[in-house]
Each structure stands twice: as structure tokens, then as C-alpha cells.
Amino acid sequence: MPKILLVEDDISITKTLSEYLQSEGFDVICAKGQSHAESLIESEQPQLLLLDISLEEGNGYGVCTAAKKLALPVIFLTASGDENSVVKGLDIGADDYIAKPFRPRELISRIRSVLRRYSGSDAIIKLGNICVDADKAAVTKNGVPIALSALEYRLFSALINNRGKLMSRNKLLEEIWDIAGDFVNDNTLTVYIKRLREKIEDDPQNPAVIKTVRGLGYRVD
């Protein structure tokens, strides 16, 4: 379970975001100020830091500098969306920058992308005769490229990133919502799952990759 250090001085944001990250399988520890955050970096050894720039004491830039001395990944999470803040954060070593308000699923995607880069894990995922290149967002079957729409790829990625776990229909609907930006209903999810299976399964009527857990959702093993 990856450990995330959330450095944020807004109590309501800390509570909401911590609960959401925990529901997504992350271990979360929190700090309000720079000195507390720096002590937790040493004692808790988190795998990634989420930092606000404006803190109760000190600032996120100082925490980022301390984290980078230990080669820890950092994502700035802040309302300071001006160009100078972005440039300064990236110049001192931040790996990513996402402005508030943000889409929770987008944040999770960014976190997993950064963690994957730091873990040195292979971005190539193989599922039988299906090969997914996460860096290029490309999918092939028996070496032949499969043309997936943005929605189809996002759904497939969500299932792959949670291999072995049940993905409820509500979770998958969130994935479509983030890409489409408009209302998507349960019937639409059924349509996209059907389209995915037609493209990646040898026998769409008896799927071996995207499996249905009746009444609950879907799973990729």
C-alpha cells in the first residue's frame, strides 16, 4: 500500500482528500506546516508527497526541496494556478502540478503515473495476447494495433490498474465522466464495455479478459 504524505492546512480538504485516497488503496499521513512535514518525511518515509504551496507554517517549496534531497516524488496541489508558481514548483523538482479545483480521478491517475515512473516498473502490461503500452496509451492484440477511443482506453486502463480487484459500475462511470465531461448513464457504460470486448476479446460472448461479476461490476485478473 503506497504511503502518501498530504501537506495541506485546510482541514476540510485534508479530511475529504484523505478519505478518498484511502478508498483508492493509499495509506495517507497528513501535515499542516513545513517543519511537521519535513519531520514526517524522515520518520514515515512516504512514497509520494502531495503539497499545497501556502501552508500554516512555511511553504510547499521548502517541503519540496527537502523531499527532493531524498529523491521522493512530489505533486503540487494548490489553488495558485499562475504561471510563476507553476514554473517555480517545477524548477525546484516537482514531478507534476495540479490546480484546485481538480477532478479526483485525474489526481489518482497522475499519482499512479508518477509512482510508476519512480518504481521503475515496466510500462508494458500483457494480458494474454493483449499488450498495453501505458506510456504511449497504445493497445495491441497479437501485435496488431487496436483503435480505442479515449473513453474505451480510460475504461480499460481503470480495469488494468486495478487488476484482480472488483471495479463497481459506479467507479467505472466516474472514469467515463472525467473524459466526457457530461452526463453518462449506466446504459452508456454497458455499451462501452460491449465495444471494448468486441475489440479485445477472442470471443466477446465468453470474455476471458474483462470478466463480469454479476450484479456488482467487472474485473480483469
Proportion of residues in helical segments:
40-55%
Distance between the termini: 19 Å
| Number of domain modules | 2
Describe the main β-sheet briefly: 5 strands, parallel
Number of strands: 12
CATH architecture of the largest domain: 3-Layer(aba) Sandwich
Large-scale geometry: elongated
- Uncertain segments: none
Helix and strand arrangement:
Elements (H helix, E strand, L loop, with lengths): L2 E5 L3 H13 L3 E5 L2 H11 L3 E4 L8 H10 L4 E5 L4 H9 L4 E4 L4 H16 L4 E4 L2 E4 L4 E4 L2 E3 L3 H12 L5 E2 H12 L5 H15 L10 E3 L3 E3 L2
Parallel strand pairs: 1-2, 1-3, 3-4, 4-5
Antiparallel strand pairs: 6-7, 7-8, 8-9, 10-12, 11-12
Provide a compact summary of the structure.
The protein has 2 domains: 117 residues, 3-Layer(aba) Sandwich (Rossmann fold); 96 residues, Winged helix-like DNA-binding domain superfamily/Winged helix DNA-binding domain (Arc Repressor Mutant, subunit A, Orthogonal Bundle).
Would you give an account of this structure?
- The strands form three sheets. This protein has a five-stranded parallel sheet with strand order 2-1-3-4-5, with helices on both faces. Strands 6-7-8-9 form a four-stranded antiparallel sheet, with no helix packed on it.
- The protein is α/β, with parallel strands linked by helices and 221 residues long.
- The chain folds into two domains: 3-119, 3-Layer(aba) Sandwich (Rossmann fold); 124-219, Winged helix-like DNA-binding domain superfamily/Winged helix DNA-binding domain (Arc Repressor Mutant, subunit A, Orthogonal Bundle), CATH 1.10.10.10.
- It contains eight helices and twelve strands.
- It is elongated, with a radius of gyration of 19 Å.
